[in-house]
Amino acid sequence: MRAPTSDLPIRFENVTVTSGAVTVLDRITLTLTPGPPTILIGPNGSGKSTLLRMAMGLIAPSQGRVTWGGREDVPPTRRAIVLQRPTMLRRTASGNIRYALRASGVARAEAQGRIDEVLALVGLEQLADRPARRLSGGEQQRLALARALARDPAILFLDEPTASLDPAATKAIEDIVHAVGQRGIKVVMATHDLGEARRLAGDIVMLHRGRVIETGPAASFFSTPQSSEARTFIAGELLV
Known about the structure:
The structure is a single chain. This protein has helices at residues 48-56, 93-103, 108-121, 137-149, 167-182, 194-200, 218-223, 228-234, and strands at 10-19, 22-32, 38-41, 63-68, 79-82, 155-159, 186-190, 203-208, 211-217. The chain is of the alpha/beta class. It has a single domain (10-27, 36-234), classed as Rossmann fold, CATH 3.40.50. A six-stranded mixed sheet has the order 5-6-7-3-8-9, with helices on both faces. The longest helix has 16 residues, at 167-182.
């Protein structure tokens, strides 16, 4: 599995996203660079999911611009995203991955090798022939990761992939995130779980009310937060 990085860095330059009268992202300036996982944190409604979708190229800014490796309007062939509630097709686990590869134009002769590789990476090789919709919630999320990774992305966006999972299933997902990072794939992940952010993050981006409140290395963010919002959030208090 190669991990090209030509879509990095991803730069948000004074980006605003509006939906009707609501400002979802407010004048975001941010750079996502190669390296360990970047973890997006913040209360519900802070703009994490919208930021991920925009970095993937699924949403256009209302104002400002986004660039990938210094270029605009780059097709997302080297990016993949896993949503919080991924849809499972009425196929086997391996069939779900095969469908994604076919849609990406991967030759049939190459597809089976990729399927075997990513199923092994996520620990589902023994469930390759099981209907995807009969998998547990944690297994479905791992399959969604395998389906995304089969496209051989340089950047993987994850939108709260462990939400509603039990501790064992959460650990399995976090282990995959570590393994993916070791392969040189850049992970950008949203989570509401501060413990998970501490375990996974190389750097932190904190959002609140559509704005970037604070960014920086995870160790310094958690030990010496610079903003009152970050201090409040880390302390487990309500941030309104």
